[in-house]
Every structure is written in C-alpha cells, then in structure tokens.
Design a protein that fits this description.
mainly alpha, 6 helices, binds ascorbic acid
Amino acid sequence: MKVLACIAVAATLTALAAPASAQFAKPEDAIKYRKNALFVMQQNFGRVASMASGRTPFDAKVAAESAETAAFMSKLPWAGFMADTDKGETKAKPEIWKEPAKFKEASEKMQGEMTKLAAASKTGNIDQIKTAVAAVGGTCKACHDAYRNQ
Ligand code: ASC
C-alpha cells in the first residue's frame, strides 16, 4: 500500500516536473493551469517581496523556502499558453501567439531572475534579496505591460 502511494506521488511529481510535455484535455484547462501556476508562484514571490520591503518581518527560512518554490513554479505556466487558448477566461494578449519567441524570451528572463532570487534567499542576506526581488519584479512588469490586458 505504501509502495503504491509512493508510486502515485512519484508519478504526480514527474507529471508536474514535465511542463514542456504537458497536455491538456481542453483549452479551458490550459488557461486554468497557467493562471493557477502563476498564482502559486506570485504568492510565494510576494511573501519574499513583502519581507524585502519591510512590510513583514524578515524570516530567512520562510524566505528561502518561498523563493525556492517560486523559482520552481516559474517553470510551469508556459505550457499552458498553447494554441487556441487566446480566448475565454484570460487576460492574455494575442501578441503572445504572434511573437512567441519574444514571449518565450520574456518568460525565460523571469525564470532566470527567479533562480537568482532563490540563490540570494539561500544566503539569508537581505540586501541581496532586495536586489533580486527588484529584478524579478521588473521582469513581471515587463511581461504584463507587453502581454497582459488590464
Ligand atoms: C508581484 C506581482 C507582480 C509583480 C509586479 C512587480 O508581486 O503580482 O505582477 O510583483 O507588481 O512590478
């Protein structure tokens, strides 16, 4: 029973860790998937950003864990921007599908800065964390300005 549970968990984790090959039954599922992945990412990033700005007390352990989770989550949303998901419950602009290379580049910039934030958070150095949070925030904003409707 335990072995079966482990296999089930392992299969789930493998599926989660394989964003590039993710498949969706319906376009709505892909939209939901990317929004939820971005939401979980933002909640974790926001927790670190809040500490960096002094809005919440700095807790190095929580910051490190949250930043690591945000960095992992930052890899997932992109598989959800598949064909035929430009309409429905989404603020995604058509530019995403018109200039996929630029969109990919923007997403990779964010993932790169998120990885740096995870590394900075591991050091526990608040100044390094502040710098990395600002860099991540810049990539969030750049992508939203270009590719997200208000
Ligand atoms: C966040 C969030 C964003 C970015 C952006 C940074 O926490 O949800 O979209 O940071 O506000 O400028």
